[in-house]
Structures are given as structure tokens and as C-alpha cells.
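Review box. Two proteins, two foldings.
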Amino acid sequence: MKADLALLVGSWLAGTARAQPNNGVVEWKIQKRKQPQDLKRLGRRDGTYEEVIKNEDARGGYFATCRLGTPAQDLTLQLDTGSSDIWVPDSSAKICTDSRGCDLGAFSPSKSTTYETVGQNDFDISYVDGSSSKGDYFTDVFEIGGATLNNMTMGLGIKTDIAYGLVGVGYALNEAIVGNSQDTSSAYPNLPVNMMEEGLINTVAYSLWLNDLDASSGNILFGGIDTEKYHGDLTKIKIYPVQSAYTAFLVAFTSLEAYSPSGSDTLTSSSFPIPVVLDSGTTLSYLPTDLASQVWKEVGAIYSSQFQLAVIPCKMRNSQGYFSFGFAGPSGPRINVTMDELVLDLTGGQPPVFNNGPYRGLDACEFGIQNFTSAPYLLGDTFLRSAYVVYDLVNNQIGIAPTDFNSTRSNIVAFASKSAQIPSATTAPDQSKVTDLPSVTSPAYAASPGFTDSAGVKGSASGLSPSPIERTFAWSSHSFFLAIPYSLVSLLAKMRVIRAAASLNSARAAAAQQGVRYYSLGSRVAVGSVCPAPPRWTASSLREFSSEQAKEQAAAGMTVEAAAARMSPEELKRLSQVRNIGIAAHIDSGKTTVTERILYYTGRTNAIHEVRGRDGVGAKMDSMELERERGITIQSAATFADWTKKENGVDEKYHINLIDTPGHIDFTIEVERAMRVLDGAVMVLCAVSGVQSQTITVDRQMKRYNVPRVSFVNKMDRMGANPFRVVDMINKKLKIPAAAIQIPIGSEKEFEGVVDLIEMRSIRNEGQRGINVKVSKDIPEDLKELAQQKRQELIEKLADVDDEIAELFLEEITPTPQQIKAAIRRATIGLKFTPVMMGTALADKSVQPMLDAVCDYLPNPNDVINTALDRSKGEESVSLVPYNSLPFVGLAFKLEENPYGQLTYIRVYQGSLKKGTYLFNSRTNKKVRIPRIVRMHSNEMEDVNEIGAGEICAVFGVDCASGDTFTDGKLPYSMSSMFVPDAVMSLSIKPKKSSDADNFSKAMNRFMREDPTFRLHVDEESEETIISGMGELHLEVYVERLRREYKVECETGQPRVAYREAITQRADFDYLLRRQTGGPGDYARVMGWIEPNEEHAEKNKFESRVVGGNIPDKYLSACEKGFAEVCEKGPLLGHKVIGASMVVTDGATHVTDSSDYAFNLATQLAFKKAFEDSGGIVLEPLMKTTITSPVEFQGSVLMLMNKRGTIVDTEVGADEFTMIADCSLNAMFGFSSHLRAATQGKGEFSMEFSHYAPAPPHLQKELVAKHQKELEAKRTK
């Protein structure tokens, strides 16, 4: 059917409109003509087009000639059903005045007497390739042939890099002004609305007839339909809203079938019903990857990594096979699309040729159906040429029927009135069944041989043995096309369709301002989220690039959606089966025990070893000797494992990167940096104690970094285990909706397994160490009622957080297991819910179902929005995409020293990392080489040559600090680091032997590099070395490590508490500094007052209220520096002053003796003098202390705590109690030994900083006297 055209020959269709006011229609006819190709972006923006343009080369845009202004100026504009603005390039725009010029015309406002600006700088629209148009809104005369609109609002592209304008005829909410103002009331009458208001048409509706791929004419008919342009029935189907706002022509695509001379197949997808946008002008059609892959297999298409799209032999356009698309449910309309509409030339010149594989020697063409990664999907020109489509924007309906190709007859029927239904159309029945989920099955590919055989394609791998799609990825690693000239590759880039990414999102945002909600078609479309940067839900048609082109485009500002759509099925598959998770919990909840079982059941280890090294080996993840002795985790440890999960009867292998974190508050930085880089987490809770103090801390850290979590109630075999109490505590104390997805079979010592509430089946462990999982549909009789009750509670909880389940719940429809799982995944990733499982890791029961839940409910790297800061744009936030072909971005989150040098843990957020490549440190701007890459398995290493996007690895030979960002040098990005809490305890330290000074220094440097919460400084007054950390245990561990790892015995002084000083009342000052030492002296006078900072109790504030210039600005900055310096070392104890405000109102200077130094010093002395009159006090840190102990020791613990602080809360359980108190840190030194003595070693406690409060008066006097004594001793030395 297709005629060969010379390379670089293009065409557009210039059309004329014919107004027929009496009939209430305006017809826009188009004819094709050729012209040398010089359209840089010969593709439309954000929606459908009027007619078939240049199908061989420039395919994708529909243009027509219009007239603007008085006198009229001719412009050729592109028609767009997806946007709503008419906009034209300004003739003075740079793109119109340079060598390229605006060949299709530009508008000169100064030449029109009817031009009027109505919105200066309000017009602003941008596109997925980074192009944009900005300028003013204006009104002027707009002519379409014989139809004239005298007051049409349009956009003027003053700053534009697009050489032609657009005529948008979509929903008014797609206007750029709506997106920019976020206000739906700012919408103005667009072209079809204005036509109706001017009486040219009766309603806001039009029909589109694109005709055959090779046809030279077609039309868009405003206000009516043409019954001769289709055959069969014209059927009405619903347009679905986005957040209750109609912004795009979104319909329900519900089935797809393949037919050929050899048979037929029904193709299925887990995404059905699929939300699709009928998007004429988008060159190709984009379907979910699983569905597109089946289509490719039917026709023998091959995914080409070289072109980043599916290709097919050009001879396949002669195939007698076709695809049948179904809409709006089982009884809805069907459109058949033949292969001659789906095979498109890659170029207008010599085509590329397959040089290996089954199609060797055949010309290669582009296949018209490609894959896309997120809803809504697109049915572009390759589909719509086979359909006659009526767009009814008043009743929000689409009329669709099979097109009558090359029809020469016409019978135009106008809409009778504004609310009139589509003429001659019938409504599709049973549209309520759209949400019925079909079973997902693998097709038999009976039609596959007929597709290829009828086209005369020999040597193709048709059918099942083996198919091209199965061999695609093996071939992709090699070049299977002939060499292609660069000009040809460049042309390919130009020929792709580009669409606006802004319109759909703009309308969504505007609709969100109105407080509306969106219910999807039962698909997995996520609209709106509690995440700070939710994924955009766009229907973008995207260009395809090679890897190098993709990198260049990303560096120039590619959107997240554009990059995501370029991922190959292989890349998507890899990412979908990656999980980066952490295990986090309160101390002694069983985190490391759970991790040991995970490693064992995944086959990563061959035996299970217990915590505390009872078997002489110790837990794999507790590799440090101190950890095994004390039975606690001190350092987070990373590992990786593969878990095989059965899905739809098929084994799917998931790759899990796992970090086991400490539970003690003293090592909280290990949890902080793990949460900073993880995509999800397993929160382990004790079945007896439930939510404990460190659980709350971990919850806070997860929320800080937006980490979704699943919860695992451990120790179900303990006496007093109550998982439902734990679920209640999660809801109330952690304030995150939670519900059990399992119930226990048996309790305490009788615990056997769990009942899965989603599938309603029982799960038990059998065999040595519970290696075998026995699944049965038989639920114990005594648990059936409880199971039904808890399943209903689960559904009710999900209805509170998920719209789809809420809709089913309100309609009293019981959701299917698949719907429940999908809702749990959406809500968990959306940070709105946590599913709760249960088991006992020590007894080897019910750990495997938890692993399945990690795969089912926690996100893969592609599900999480990660951002960086673009330093070239004022640290503007930009999204990162886990796509290997993009420029590299990674974050160093942990450092370790080992015998081979510094080991740097890196999370790869974007791009891939290869051994031997060079990276740039964004902080230091230094270039570093990566000599070695390893995967960590606790303290063991496995060398690898390359790590892909979304993975975690470690590298050697990189000099950096924790929190540094690395790029490949092409992107000016940096990433925010993790939160580092302040130290709460200090002590003096020195080596016993002076000969150990070198090792002591090396150890201190290493510890500070590895642990940001460990600090060291030398006290200027006492000249002692002071180390600071998160608590007594924290510092004790480092002193012990000095002894063991560096053979340095140390002496430690009494722990020093990080006191603070503050003022309690206002005190005025008028201080004059006058010193003469021969030559220039020092002169400065400052006046004002100090007072407590009412705005922030822990921050200091300096304010200048000097008028008249008595103190010049340069000296005021010196005053501010002096205030900051004096607050670092307070007058009472030499500790920091907090919560002070200093106001300078006046002062005096000397012509020669005043200086920055003088005013700095005067400010410090003035502050110290005023401090005496301001009621200076000493503040001590209060620690939130949580003690857990057996109930019989409650009285003893109560006596201990009465001496140390204020009891805030006490919770008594079946066999143990928990007490929470605010205690002075000074009173807690040595508390651990007292607690052990009082509870026979059975009590435990944890502390975290709470706040500063005034110390008791007697303690303040003692501390001040001691400080003065130390100063006096130093002066008399």
C-alpha cells in the first residue's frame, strides 16, 4: 500500500474549513502536499490531530491553515485534541528569526489592529522533550475558512523553541492557564466552546476521520458526524474522569484478540481493564508490557535495544492477520486493526536490514504497538486510522465505529442541541462490567504462524519453538542491523512524536484544589498519594532513543515518564524483581534471628547460627566479636539473597538486598543511614511487648525517609503472646493504619503456623528447621469464625485507605484475593497502611510467608520517587529514574575500614556502575576511579564487574565522606544526606602509653569517618581529648574496640554531660570597649538588651535595630559574629548558650580605633556582663528512658526511677511491665548495673534525648563552683 519516498522528503496537510451555520457544523478538510523536510518537531503535542499527515516520514501531525488578526495573517497550525489552547509563535521569537525560521508562519501582533493582551506572561506550556512556549494570552480575530470568531483567546509564544503553533480542541481544563493558576475558574472558552457560543455549532463535539495510512485526505467535523465515513454501528462509551475532572479522552480498553489464517488467540493482561487515551497524532500505540509482549510474539516482532523499540520485517505489512480491540466491557464495540496499519517505515530512505537472527537479510520496520510502563496507556494513529471517533465533550462520551477507508460519499448529521446525544449512536451495554477482572492466561499463539506465513516471511521463529520475543534479549546484546548513517539516526529522533506532559497533570492539580477524588477503572492507576513527590499520571507519547541519546536527553531535562517509557521489557523485569529492604525493630525483638532465617531459607547460608554465638559461630550478620559476645547488633550489616516465589503457577525469582540494623538507641545512626537508601522495610515487633520505645524511634525514621513497611510480629511462641494487641498498638501508638493479614494457629508453646486471611488457607512449616512450607485450604474449625472476622476487619481497614476497596465496600461487593493484594500493595507503597504478619523466627515458623509479603507489598526501585538537587538551577528538586542508560547518580551512605582499605557502600539511584569507570564527587568536584566493586554478605565480599540502577554495592579506593553524592560528571546533581542527631554524652580519654598515640589517632580518625555521631575534640582549657556520642554504651563500645582492634589501652575520665546555658529574663547593656596600647587602639560601644528567644527555645537570634548609622553595617556583622562566638562558650560552665536573643539598638565608633575586632570583642563582653543580670541558668539534658522488666520487680524499679527522674507512663502486661520516665542524663550514669542488680539481670532499658530543662538549683551551684575551681587551677599553673 505504501509508496516509497525519498529520504528527508516530508509533507503536511494544509486544510480549509467550511462553515455551514444552517446545519450547525463546521467541516475542516485537509489535503496532503509535499515539501522538503525541515520541521524539527514534526509531531503533535498532547492529544489528537486533525488528519493524516505525512505517513511515511514525518508521521504524527495534522496541520491546517488558519487566519489571525486584522488584516488577516495566514498561519499553518497543528490540530490537537488533547490540549485546549490555540497558540501561535511570535514573529519576533528567536526561533523565527534565525536560520531555521518559522516556515509554517508566525504572528505579528503589531500588524493587527484588533490585537489585545489579556494575560501578560500567563501563557506557559512545556513538553516532555524539554521544549516549551511562553508568553502572553491575547484576544483577536480567528478565521477558519468562512467561519470567523471575533474575540478568540489565544497564547502568543514569545519565548518558544517550537517553530509552529497549535489549535487545541480538547477539554478546557487542559488550558495552560488552568495548570499554572491551579484554578479551574481561570478556564476560558476554547475553540469548540467559542464556536458553540457564536452559533456556528450546536454543541461542543466533533468527529474525526483519519482514513487509511496512505490516504491524502481526511477531516475533523465540528458539531456533527458523517454517517458515510464508518460502517457498522456507531457505539457510545464512557469517558472517565481524572479526580472527577474531565481532562482527557480516557476510555476503558477491555480485551484484545489476534486473528490470522492459522487461528485466533485471546491476549490477556494483569492490567485489564486498561485505561487508554484515544490519542490521534501519537504515532504509535502504547500498551502494558505484558500485553505488548504477547502481541510481539504473535507477529514475530523483536525488541531492539539499538532503536529502543520493537521492530519487524517490513514484509509483515502484507500479512493477512489482524488484531481486534474491545472496549467498555464484553458487549462493547470492537475495532479491527490490520497489519498494513501497524508496520511503519523506520526511515524515508534506505531501511535498516537485519544482519543476524531469524530475519537475516530482511528490511526492518517499526512495529505500531509498543510497550509502556504506567497507566493511562495510549492508542495512537496506528489504532485510530481504523476507527471513526466522535468526541462529545458535553455528555463526556466517545462514539466509535470501524472506519470506512477512502469513502468518497458524505452524509453530515448535526447535533441537534447542546445536550443532544451523538446522532445515530447506540450506548454500549453492560458498561458496569468494565471492572470485571479477566483471568490472566498464556495464549496458545495459534494465530502466530498465520501472521508470518501469509506475509511470506520465511525463517521467522513463529509459534512456540522458540519465538522471537524469547530470543530478543539474547540478540539485543549484539548489533543486528546494518550500519546506519548518523544523519539517519538523527532523523529517527526527529520523526518521533512529542506530546505535552503538562496538560493532564495541570488539570489534575486544578481538580485537586476543588477537593475532588478520582476512582480508577479498577486498574492499578495511582492518582494522588501521601508521598511528597508522587509519580505523574500522564499519557505521554514518547520518542525512542539509543542509550547515548537517552543520556544526552536526560541531561537536558528529560522527564521521569519519558525515561521510564524507554525501559526495555528486560530492564523492567529486572527492576520489578528487586527489593531493597531493611530489618528494623526495638532491641531484642529478634531482628537478627529473623535475618538468619531469611538467609537460610533463600539458600544464602547452609546453616542457622544463633545470636550471642551460643554454638561457637554466632549469627552471620553479627560479624563483630563484640556483637556476638553482647548479643546485640552494633553495626548495620548488608547482604543479598534470591527468593523464589510462585506466581500464577510460575516460579519468579526476586533479588533482595537486605540490611540488618541495630535496635539500641545508641547506634541509631546505623538505622538512619539504612533508611535513607532503602525502598522498604520489615518492622519486627515482639508478640508480648508490642510497640516499645525504639519501635517508636524506628517508626519516626521510616516516616522521615518515606519508607513503606510490612510488620512482622515475632516470638509468637512466648507466654503472653498477643498479636492482635500488637496490631492495636501499631494503630494507636504509631498512628499508621494496620491490620493482620494472618491469624495464628495455636498460641504460645502450641503455636503451629498461620491462617492466610487473603487466600483463606492455612500455612505450616515442616521438616528440619522449617524448610518445607505446607499450604492447605483446610482451616481449623475453631478458627473459621475468627478468620472471617479478621478478614472483614482487614477489608474495612483497607476501605479506609484505598479508593477501589472503598467503592467495593460501599457496594457490598466482597473483593477478590487479587483485589485485596493489589490494594495492600498500593496502600503500603503509598505510606497509608502496613500489613501485619506473625510467626516465630527462633522456632523456624512462618518466616517464608513474610518473604512472600516483601515481594508482594514492598516497592521495587521503580515504584519509589527518589530526588536529587540540581545545583545549576538553584538546587531545584529533580526526580531520578532507576534506568541503566541514564547518567549515573549514587549516594555513599556508609564507610568501613578493612584490610583492603576504605570500603564505601553506595546506593545506585540512576544509571549503572562499572568497574574501572570514573565518577565525580559532587561535594569535592574530584574525579575518582572505581577499581573494585563488591556485593557484601555481612563481612564477606563477592566481586562484580557492574551494578545496575536500583541496587546496593560497595566499592574500594574511593576517598569520600558519608553522605557524598557521586555522578558520572554529566549532571550537576547532589543528594540530601541522612539526619544526624546531636551527641548527648562525652568523656575524656587518653592512651595509657604515649607509644600508642599513633594507633590512638588512627582509630579516632577511622571511627569519626565511619560514624557521624561519634565526635572528638580537644578541650582548650583542660587540654583533654573529649569523645562524644549517643550514650554510655556507644562510647563504651568504642573504647573496647580501641583495645581489641588497635591494642590501645585507654584511661577514661568521668563522663561529661552536654549541659546548656540559658537566660530567663531581659537585661539591658551599654558597654564601651576602650583600649590604648600605643598606636591604634580598640574602640567600640554597643547598646541594647538580651532576652529569652520566645520564637525558638533552643536557637539563638541576633537582631539589629540601629538607626542613623551610628554603627556601620560592616561592624554590625562583626557584632553578630561576636554574639555567635560567645554563645558557643557560656559564662557559667563554658557550655553552649541556647534560646538567647540579642538586640543591638545603638552604639558609637571612633575614626581610627574602631574595627571589626573591636566590635566583635565588645559584643562578647557586653553579653557576658548582661548575662549576670538576665537570670542565667544551667540546662541539663533529659532523656526519655524506657525500662522493661518482669512484673515481680516493679517495686524495685520504681524506687530506682524515683531518685532519677519523673515517671511519665507505666504499662503492665501479663508477665512484664514497661515504664517510661524523663530522667536527667547525669543521674543515669551507671544505671545499667543498678538495674541488673535490682532485677536479677532480667531488666533492660533504653534512652534517647528528649529535651533540655533547668537543672536543680543545688546541682547548678555545684557545677558552677566546680567550673570556677577548674578555671582558677588553670590560671595558677
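Next protein.
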Amino acid sequence: MLEARQLPGHALAELASLFVDVIKGGSLSNGKSLELFSTVLTALASSKENLAYGKGELNGEEFKKQLINTLCSSKWDPRCVIHLANMFRDIPLSGEELQFVVEKVLRMFSKLDLQEIPPLVYQLLLLSAKGSKKTVLEGIISFFNQLDKRQKEEQRVPESVDLEVATTPLDQLRHVEGTVILHIVSVINLDQDLGEELIKHLKTEQQKDPGRALCPFSVALLLSVAVKHRLQEQIFDFLKTSITRSCKDLQFLQASKFLQDLFPQQYDITAVILEVVKNSAFGWDHVTQGLVELGFSLMESYEPKKPFGGKAADNSYGLSKMPAQQACRLGASILLETFKVHEPIRSDILEQVLNRVLTKAASPVSHFIDLLSNIVVSAPLVLQTSSSKVTETFDNLSFLPIDTVQGLLRAVQPLLKVSMSVRDSLILVLQKAIFSRQLDARKAAVAGFLLLLRNFKVLGSLSSSQCSQAIGATQVQADVHACYNSAANEAFCLEILGSLRRCLSQQADVRLMLYEGFYDVLRRNSQLASSIMETLLSQIKQYYLPQPDLLPPLKLEGCIMAQGDQIFLQEPLAHLLCCIQHCLAWYKSTVRLCQGAEDDEEEEEGVGFEQNFEEMLESVTRRMIKSELEDFELDKSADFSLSSGVGVKNNIYAIQVMGICEVLIEYNFNIGNFSKNKFEDVLGLFTCYNKLSEILKEKAGKNKSALNNKTARSFLSMGFVSTLLTALFRDNAQSHEESLAVLRSSTEFLRYAVSVALQKVQQLEETGQTDGPDGQNPEKMFQNLCKITQVLLWRYTSIPTVVEESGKKKGKSISLLCLEGLLRIFNTVQQLYSAKIPQFLQALDITDGDAEEADINVTEKAAFQIRQFQRSLVNQLSSAEDDFNAKETQSLITVLSTLSKLLDPASQQFLQFLTWTVKVCKENALEDISCCKGLLSLLFSVHVLYKSPVGLLRELAQDIHACLGDIDQDIEVEGRCHFAVVNAKTAAPTVCLLVLGQVDKVLEEVDWLIKKLTSLGSDTSEDPSQASNQTQALEKGVILQLGTLLTVYHELVQTALPAGSCVDTLLRSLSKTYTILTSLIKHYIQACRSSTNTIPGRLEKLVKLSGSHLTPQCYSFITYVQNIHSESLSFVEEKKKKKKEDEAAAVSTVMAKVLRETKPIPNLIFAIEQYEKFLIHLSKKSKVNLMQYMKLSTSRDFRINASVLDSALQERNSEDTENEPHNDQSSTAEQTDENQEPKKKRQRKK
């Protein structure tokens, strides 16, 4: 072997040929002898002799090349592939030879046993140091991508038809993939260029086909490489942009039927990344670090934004539709799934989440708290090992905003049930916080204690919070599962209640939290009833005046506190009463039923405070009805301005009195059991409430401040609102009729009931919860929402607004309020309860009460509701002009568009709805602009899901043209009227701008398709026939869309549009169209370069259409726009001459307006000229003269009008003959002219 280099050339050639024959014959037993072969080939390459090859002669280098060529085109024995790949590392190879070798080795992958692939990949990677890095990486990734796909297919169809293909066991495949990834990472550590090449390759692939570039294998590979810091930023940026792009593309596709038909298969990167998490369970520890970092990076990059100066927009309860929100949710899913799969990394994830909750306190952290909550729920016992991290977080509770504290405590609540030490450390922190100087810290303490009281039934059985400090873990476990006695429990709870009592002497905010929380504590922990009720009784006694004839019954002055010249609310009295009312109602309904078996002492004690409360509330009700506003120092003459101390005090009093009235209304209605006297009391209380409410509205009307215009939040609970509405509108029981007639006689009361329902639904929509008991219980809220909807729907459909309005004095009619309420409810249900839409629609359909949940057809039920609103809308549209209510029509259209989202676009009902919408637009000449806007927007949003709206846009454009007339006044436009909605009042700017807005959306789709086309054109690896079929389908789609759009523009650019937004938008839209036409032409230039294809006839027709129907008309339109502006300028100039000083400002504004509105013109001309420039290129490339369809464009910078020139010259000649004797005068005149000209220009620049 050492002597091989000394051998003569012909001997080397013979030896080499012998080796090739042995390899071809498949009789190579091991790789040892190949070391000699590599030496022989290296020696051959450096040999200067001419060697005989076949009939001719070749030099050594050529001979070696021929041998390698023969070797790579012959059959290899799978056993010796690794040895051969190793051998080629030692041979000097040219780029071409290396490519040959690499491709051959990659082709051998499929013939090898799966276990042999990792070592072969390693050899290939080492070989790639010589070059062909891209080919190696592409080959490896596509091989494993194919294997993954095949595996998926087999899982989907277990009984595979193709039985010859041996199925690979899943775990074996994953282990092999993991090893290959490790090999690639280790080689990238040595050769950074390979890492750069990987990212570069995937970026270019992703442009062409994201499904092939970012498959589970390549994503796992990228995440493993990302752990090396040099490439980390690059990789994460690439992955994040890919994720948002994929989400945007999906959103884009879902919004358009036209695109869905062209792209039936949609690539979803979120599923791919979650699959990587699932695969990483097979020992891919090298991927987990990357996954965790990617998860946090996504959550931080796309976290909910905090609006400037406002409260953070928390949309965690809503359905996030935006790509950024989807990316943030994907980050959370990655972390949660990784947490479940990989134990070693759990504490790390938990620590990072907790750190972010603490450090990002200023920005919204709801997404991190949600993640923490899911983590705790998935494994509370595992968290015991990390409990020290949680207790560290508790130490910082008092520095966090109250929302964050509540979220955090709710999230870790399951952990408190299993870990004593965590619970104790929390209690210590909360007890310190109660005495803190910071108000937020005290509020946090109250929130924490209330949470403990609510969940304390399982929290252990020790008499005091401190005595469990030294208990071991075994005892903790025993304590959780042991039977705890309620006495020890109660002792613990009473200790906490003692701490909370101290808070009743603190600020209003702290007390408010307590009053809002007590009801929930009672409901979950009934044994605390007597303690809580006693606490509330002692608190209300401070403000209650027991003398039966004293008015008013409560000391309001005790509720406020003056500090310097400022006045604050100290005791939220209405909230206190509200809390008492709810607790008492719950106590009476629940505890008394259960107390039959208990001893008498407790019962007596219970009856004591119950009787006390009942007498007190009875007395307060009686006296509140008797009280006049003057008794509270509030009447029409009182000052309610917020700038003075007296005004602030009166505002506080008014809100408290109104709140007390509302609380008493609910109390008396509930205990009244439909007695007439009680309902008269309710009406009396409402009269008091209403007087104050009217005064406040009147004062707010005079004093136009934003603060005053907010209506105070109602104290009625959501459950009561639904009960009240059902009683008022739907209760037909004979026995209730007389008493309900009392309430039904007051229209004001009915309107109030509906408006409170509206307010509650609005609160639910904005925050995901409402005030009052069960306000945070989504299930109860949903049930109440269903009840309220039933009533409002019945009230609206059975009593039309027209009937009601005849007797109406002021304010909105009840029917209109019902309609507004329904609109809000339909929105809220789609946002918050999307999963429960079938049950919601089921609840509305009274006819079909007993259907199984599985049988509910959402489309049918939604179509039924839609038909009711369609009838109402048709009635509105066909009503006389005096009866037409624009507000109601607008709301009806919005309701229809909200409900139409529930229809399945493939269903018959959807098509019927679309046909109906088109018919309404065609037959109704709506002159109200907002209604017309709503109706057309509805038409577009529905039409786009059925097919492309270009045909519709053409008809609308023709109608606009017919309505507004032509830019050439001599031309009479034929009056084709397709849509009555387009009329003189609505055509411009309303319909015109809507049409242009829709045209822009179509242009965006076309632009997106052309980008896809370009990437498909540069893609050579797929099956060429399949790729060309798809390309042809896309090209056809693009050209047809653009062709129809050109006819839309053909109408619009000939329309005499008024100066302003329409002209401006149209000019910009035209520029965009020419830019898109140019990019289409560029695509064809590229296609002509890469293949010998001729351009399709369709494109020729499109170019012809643009030359005949668009470009010439664009130039006339530009002239028309300039004429409009020059007329407005000359008009201003005339004015200026009449009134010089006053009009200077007006002139400059008109000048600025003209400049602004003519700005798009140069851009449009440039776009047209660019289009023509590339057409010339394409004509040369394709040998087809496309410019024959283009007329020579006008030179806009220098136009000479012959007739004007002649008259000017004649005038000049006559002047010259007159002025000949006065030469010096004329020269001075010329000088002054010269001096003035620049001044005029300067003025124009302004």
C-alpha cells in the first residue's frame, strides 16, 4: 500500500479497474481493502501518463473521473455503502465528481436497513466538508420527511394495502432520527458553514413549499442546533416569522373561497411543532432546551399589548383570531406539552414562568398566568418538589398588581391543597400584607384570604396555621387523605375571618373586595355562615338608624371621609347591603333546609340574625319609599359637578342611594312571591331610583365631561335580571297576573329592566364576567344569557318597534333596546362560548326542546333565527318613509352578519342567505348611508365565502358609472341598474369606497398568488407534471381575476367622481393594479428564461385588455382630475382678488389639499411606464409583440394646445404694436414680472 504511489500508470489503472469490477460484482467483503483503492485513485489523479481507456487514451485525472462515474452509475452492495462513503473522503474530488458521489449515496438510503443510516449520515456529513453541503442536507431532510409521512399514513390506515413495504416500528424510527440529529449537530459544531447552509437552504425551501421545508424532522434539527448560541438568534427569528406567516396564510385562505379552491391542502405549522414535542418523548433531550426557549420566545414576542395609558387588553377569554395571538398561544402549548412529557426540565419551566409573572408586572401577564394554571392542574403533586420556588414568589405578592395576585393565587390553588408548607408560607405573607402601607398589598391580602376560605374544605385539619411548621412530608400526605374534623377546620377559618374583620375599617376598595367575596365563601363553606352574618350585621348597624319614623333610614354622612379639601367614599354602603341581601337569600334557601337535624341552640342563634336582617331590610324599604330626595340633601338644585367638594359628595350620595334602591328592588321582588303589595314597594323604590337617575343624566347633559356620562353600574345580579325579564314579559300564570300588572304598567320600569340586561351583557363581553354572585361562573352566566336571549327575542319579534313608538315619549324604545341586547349577546356567545353555540341555539328554539346534543345542526338552527330577523328587516325596508328607523335597520343588518358566521358556507342555507342578500341590495333603494354601508359589507363578507366577488364588483361599478355620469359630459351613459342600493345619495363616496376596498382585497389575493407562482416556478425538485398543472391552475385564476378587475376599473375611471377620497383611493388602487400586472409580467419573463414555453393566449388577451380598456382611460382620468383641481384653484384665485387678507389662509389650505390629492398621479404614471417597460422585455424574450396593444402614452410634462397658442400669439403681436414707443416702460414691466414670479412659486410651496 505504501508502494502504490511508485507503481507505473498502467498498473495503477489496472488495479483501479479491478477494484471497480469487484465493487460492481458485489463481492467486496470488508472495507479494509478500500484503503488501498483510495490510495490508487489518488495516485492515478496525480499521474501524468496517458493511459489506455477503451479505444482511446486518457490522462490520469480524466481516467479517475471515468472510474468514479462508472462506479456511481453501477449497483452497490448495501453492506459496503458506509465503507465506500468513508473511502471517498480520502480522494481528491472535483465539485462535479463530489456531486455524483453524494447523490449516489443518498439514493442508497432507501435500500439500507434503518439502523445503518446514522453512521452513513455521519460519513456523508464529513464528506460534505469538501462541498455539496446543500445536497447532503436536502437529501437527509427529505428522506426522513418521507419516512414520517409514510408512518403517519400507516397510523391512519392500519390495514395497509401495500403489504410488501415493511412497516418501521415508531420508536425505532424516532431513535434513529434522534441519533441523526445528534450527528448533524456535532458536525455543525466543527463546521459552522454547514449550520449557515442549513438555515439558508430551509429559508429558500420555505418560500417554495413550507410543508417540505419545515417538517417535524427539520424543526427538531433546527431547535437542536439553536442551543449553540451563534446561530440561535437567526434560527428563532426564522421560526417565528415562519409561524406568523403560516398563521397569516391560513387566515387568508379561510377568508376566501376562491383561494380555498386553488389550495385545497393547507399547511399548518402549529401542528408540526406540537408533533416535534410529542416526538421528543423518545429520548430527544437535545431538542427540549430549544423547545422551551422557542416557547418563551413566542410568548414574549407576541404577548398581549398594553394600550397607551390604558388598562391591558386581556383577551385570554376571547377567541384569538390574530396571527400574533395564535403564535402566543402556540408558545404556551409548546411549554405545557413539554412540561408534561419531560420530567427533568419541569422545575426549570416553572421557575421561568414564575419569574416572568414577577418581573413583567407592568405589562399584561395573563398568558403566563394561564400557562401556570394549566401546569399546576396537569401535575400538582410534581410541583411539591418545586414548592420553594412558589413560596419565593409569595414573598413578592404585596408588590404585584391586584389582577396578577388574584390570577396567581387562583393558578396555584390546587398546590395549596397538597402542600402544607406552601399554605403556611402564604398565610404568613398575607398576614403581613394586611398591615402594609400600600393599598394594593392590603387588597392582595384580602384576595388571598378569601381564596383560602373558599377552598378550605380540603385544606387540612389543624387548629392553627402555625402548628404545622415542623410536620414531615408523610404526615402532609396523611393529612390530605385523612378524615378532617370540622371543628379544627372552623378554628382555622375563624382565625382568618378575624384577620379579615380588621379590613372592615380600611379603605373603600378593600371593603369592596370583602363584600364581593363573602357570598362565594358562604356558598362553598356553609359552616362559616353564622360568623360571616354576624360580622355583616355588626357592620351595617353602624349606619342603620333603628327609629321607625326617622328619614332617611341610613346615615350616609358616615360613609364619606374628608381629607384636606378632597372627599372620598369610605364605606361602600350599597355594596354592603347587596352582600347582606345575597348572603341572606342563600342562607334562607340552603342552611334552613339542612338544619332540621341539628340542635336548637344553633338554630336560635341563626334565627336571631336572620330576623334582625329581615326587620332591618323591611324598615329600610318602607322608609326609602317615603323619603324625598331632599332627605338625602339631593334635589334638582344640588351641585353635581366633580370640580367642587360638594359636587363630589353629592355624586357619591346619589350613587349610594341609587344602589341601595336597586338592592332593595331585588330583595323585595325575591321575597315577595308575586304579592301585589311587594311589587308596589318595588315600583316605589324604582321611582326613587329613577328620579335620581334623571337628575344625574340632566346634569351630565349640561356638563359634557366624559366622567359624568358613564352610567353607574347596576347592583342587580345577572341571575335576578334574567328572572325579572322572564316575569315581566313571559310569565302567563293566572295567579301572577294581577301583581305583575303593577310592574308592567310602568314603561319606564320595563325599559330599565332591559337596559340593565344590556349593561350586564356588555360587561360580560368586555371582561368575561359580571358583578354579583356567580358572576365568575361561566356555566351560570351562560344559562342566564340563554334565558335573557329567549325573552328579548320574543319581545322583539312579537311587538314591532313601529307599534310601540306611537306612544313613546323619550329615550329608545324597548324593542330597539331588545335588538341592541340581542346583537351584543350574539357577539358575546361567539366570543366566549364558541364551544356551546349548539346548546345556545337549542335553548332559543322553544319548539324543539328535547333534541339530543349530538343531533343539533348549528346551520339549521342559525338559519331559523336568521329568518326571523330577515322578516323584520324586510318590514323595515318596505315601511313608509316616516316609519323607517335607520338605527334599527343598521342593528338588524349587524345581527344578520353576526349570525351568518354560524352558517356552514357549503350548506344550502348559506346559499339561500346569499341569494336573499343580493335580492335585498338589488331591490331596495336605501338612501341612509350607514345602512347602505352595512348591507354592502354584509353582501361582500358572505359572497367571498361562496365565490370570488369580481363579477359583483363589475356590476356595482357599472351602477356607479350610470349614477354619477361620465367624465366626458357629452357622453350619455346607458342606465343599466343592477343594484338599487347604488343611487345618487350613496354612489359616492360610500359605495365607491366600499367597492374599491373590496377590489383591494382581491388585489391582495392576486398578489399573494403571484408570489406563490414565482416560488413554484423556481421549484425543480417536485414531479414536474404535477407542478406544471398547479402552475397552470394558478395562472388561469390570476389572469381571470385581473381581467375582470380591469373591467371594473374601466367603468370607474370613466366616472365623474367628485374630488376627494374617491379620486384619491382610485388613483392609489390603479397604481397597485399596475404594480401587480408588472409582477405577473416579471413572472412570465422568469418562466421564459427557465424553459422554452411560449406565453399563454390568456395573458395576451389580458395585455390587450389593459391596452384598450385601461391605460388610455387612466390618462383621460388624470386629465379630468387635474381639471377639477385647476378649477378649484382658479375659483380660489378669484376669491383672493376680491378679499385679499381674509382669504390667505383659505388659499393655502386649498393649495395643500390640491397638492395632497394630486400626489398619487406621478406614482400612477410611473407604475404604468414600468408595466410597459417589462412588457417590452417579455416581447423580446417570447418573440411575441405585446406592445402592439399599447398606445403611445401622453407626455404629461409638456403639453401644447395649438388653438390656445395661436390666440396667445395674436394677442402678443397686437400688444407689441401698441407698446413700441414706450420701450423703457415695457422693460421695467418685464423686470417686475420677473421679480414677482418666484414669489408666486414660494407661496405655492406652502
